[in-house]
């Protein structure tokens, strides 16, 4: 295998599994050009009224063209409550199909059963994010080919540009009509926005909407247009929407998390970002939710209103909008049911897809209109490079989500994280895996101090002398390592088991096989 | 009942470990850890260092770790060895630590259970004026030794974990089975203060003073460890003045409402009328003895408004601080005990008037139509001094 060094000094293969790879050159070095993916012209149109409904899997298979090695895609809006990925892949395997490529936007622990299909050879590999045992299987080298991890914006781009060719898109929809129009807000399985599936619906060769709630035509809102849908399969249940909840959606009681969120809020205020009409990235997780809450308190106290938020939505964010503190919530995915309800009922709560929010090959995306994004990480290094995918032991346990896109776009990107988890330090000389380059990371906030990227002297000038615990990254790392010690390096093989793509499709890093 | 053959220390949970030691002729260390890939070697080395510290080279030591830091690993191993009777409390020179300041700010004192290592790791960052490492009520009797060792080793890590703050250890009463062992273990690690619980009479404080002085003599130091008597019984309340005056080591006196109301045999209410007289009596006694008076904890962590009201009431009664049981209470307490803007403005005006009187040679200081007499002036001075201690802005001219 021929290896090359990318712009961050990471060794990446020049070519892998018969595909020529582009090494990462820099966050904004992409030249564009080329043409977008092409799509088959539909075979026929039936005369008369259109009805695409299929009532059983067996009937569905009869209408589809299936083959070994085909790529099947899914969205992850049902998160850990999804029933469809397991069901579809198991049935395809039962048909005797081999070497299938699963292209989900993300997998969760509910999908751990896919490991058996990987072992049996029904699934060749995953092109998508993995949380849970599938990620562990990938780390250990169980997949035939390297997995490919992309950000939400990167996934849209890859599909649009033809890098990720989808043979069959399976789109879980809580509401759909006989025409194939579908949305995510109506019905017993409502999960909120369905926008992650937009690219799949536009560019896959065969598109199936799967619903447990067939409603009379027209299904409004038409978040997924029936004009792009071949078949509508009805099933008893697409999933359990109570499990879309990501992590905690209540305000954390952890003093350390509250402390970090408080520091991040004070930083944002001291840096002058908190001003009338500002905008921010939403998110889930203890620190992020507490930050949103504290931000709201400061906005209320100072009479400031945000113009909009982008990204994942929670009840806490929705409450800020209800209190008149945010003009619009633009929502890419709902993290709790309060957000789902609000999207359905509140006209200021707007559904967006990754093309709008994150795509580098759109003509601009909302992420670049955001003033501040507060994001988490598993590791940060002295160059401000951030890892959100692997743990320090090398295991691939998390997806990228919107991380790379939000970090690249926001005017100020803040990483918040506890300085160590158990005894594993967040700061490393070199991160195990680079998800995003230090050039798009502006500030690191831990409970043991705030470090500002030296590239952002402007921020440093603004917050100096404002009572914030400012430190340099090396100081912070030494302070943390004095408590935790320095971890030993995990035993890694040379084989790349996963590629981490930057949003433009270049390879920013690889995940290497974890030995023993 | 047969003698135990396996000796254990530590608890299940994040940042802790369970150590078992089994006396045997052979020597073996077994390490299991949730961070084994990254720290397995490190944990084994720490175990070897600790065994060497106590000259133990036999037996089977098993570790089940969940990401504990080195000093916690050492504490748990030491506890298991001491339970097995193969190690004794180490004799170490006192750490290099600046002595306690008698009159420092003590608005908030955060209680940390002495046998819960995960809470020790970041507590020092939360901005309380003092931290209490508790060996008394929050520690079960069968864990007293474990807690004592953990607290002693935490005190030796204080420069990293609690930089620049005051560390207090609440020891067990000397009238019970644990108090003397607590002092023997803890005093050589030089906490700034000892919180002496359930003080019923001056004898309780005097006995602690005598014992601490004896330990200090062995260490070659004098009067380094100061006291904070805690009154939480009716008898103690009645004897408050004698308790406050019992030892020159005392710098502050605290009230504990939970035990007090139990002792009195009445329910503890939110308004706290049942403790009003006791609290006032403690404030008076402290005042007479020249000590700070510090109020009890407010136990409803979710009730910010109740906490604020309780602090303002305490401040009004003459207390200078409050106990806290969750870090989120700290900021509210500090805010409540700070002088109000109106108080500060009034004090500044009085200071201005006094300055003017000195400049013009006027014998009498007056503010508007009111005469400023000496106690008023004194109070203004004190208020400005406290505000400065708290770091409030706009005091450069005073």
Set down the secondary structure blueprint.
The complex is a heterodimer of chains A (516) and B (398).
Chain A lengths: L2 E3 L5 E3 L1 E2 L2 E2 L32 E2 L2 H7 L7 E4 L9 H11 L5 E5 L1 E2 L6 H7 L2 E4 L2 E2 L2 H7 L7 E3 L2 H10 L6 E6 L1 E2 L5 E2 L14 H6 L2 E6 L19 E4 L20 H16 L8 E4 L3 H17 L3 E8 L1 H8 L3 E6 L1 E2 L2 H9 L3 E3 L2 H4 L14 E4 L3 E3 L4 E2 L15 H7 L2 E5 L3 E2 L2 E2 L1 E2 L14 E4 L2 E4 L4 H7 L6 E2 L1 H12 L7 E10 L5 E8 L2
Chain B lengths: L6 E3 L7 E6 L4 E7 L2 H18 L5 E7 L4 H15 L23 E6 L3 H7 L6 E5 L9 H13 L1 H4 L4 E5 L8 H8 L6 E4 L5 H18 L6 E6 L2 H5 L1 H5 L7 E4 L1 H8 L8 H17 L2 E6 L6 H14 L3 E4 L3 H10 L3 H20 L5 E2 L2 E2 L2 H16 L9
Parallel strand pairs in B: 3-4, 5-6, 5-12, 6-7, 7-8, 8-9, 9-10, 10-11, 11-12
Antiparallel strand pairs in B: 1-2, 2-4, 13-14
Q: Could you explain the architecture of this structure?
A:
The complex is a heterodimer of chains A (516) and B (398). Chain A is an alpha/beta fold. Chain A has 2 domains: 50-244, Glutaconate Coenzyme A-transferase (3-Layer(aba) Sandwich), CATH 3.40.1080.10; 255-490, Glutaconate Coenzyme A-transferase. Chain A has 14 helices and 33 strands. Chain A has a 7-stranded parallel sheet with strand order 5-16-15-12-6-7-9. In chain A, strands 17, 18, 19, 20 and 21 form a 5-stranded parallel sheet that branches. Chain A has a 5-stranded mixed sheet with strand order 22-25-29-30-31. In chain A, a hairpin with a 5-residue loop joins strand 1 (3-5) and strand 2 (11-13). In chain A, helix 7 packs across helix 8. Chain A is globular and about 75 Å long. The model of chain A has no long low-confidence stretch (mean pLDDT 94). With 398 residues, chain B is an alpha/beta fold. Chain B folds into 3 domains: 7-84, Ribosomal Protein S5, domain 2 (2-Layer Sandwich), CATH 3.30.230.10; 108-337, Phosphoenolpyruvate-binding domains (TIM Barrel); 341-389, no CATH class. Chain B is built from 15 helices and 14 strands. Chain B has helices spanning 36-53, 70-84, 117-123, 144-156, 158-161, 179-186, 202-219, 234-238, 240-244, 257-264, 273-289, 304-317, 328-337, 341-360, 374-389, and strands at residues 7-9, 17-22, 27-33, 59-65, 108-113, 130-134, 166-170, 193-196, 226-231, 252-255, 292-297, 321-324, 366-367, 370-371. Chain B has an 8-stranded parallel beta barrel with strand order 5-6-7-8-9-10-11-12, surrounded by 7 helices. In chain B, strands 1-2-4-3 form a 4-stranded mixed sheet, with helices on one face. In chain B, strand 13 and strand 14 form a beta hairpin. In chain B, helix 14 crosses helix 15 (374-389). The N and C termini of chain B lie far apart (72 Å). The model of chain B has no long low-confidence stretch (mean pLDDT 92). Chain A binds chain B through residues 255-256, 258-259, 392-393, 418, 421-424, 447-448, 482-485, 487-488, 490-491, and chain B through 14-15, 34-35, 37-42, 66-70, 121-123, 125-126, 160-161, 326-328.
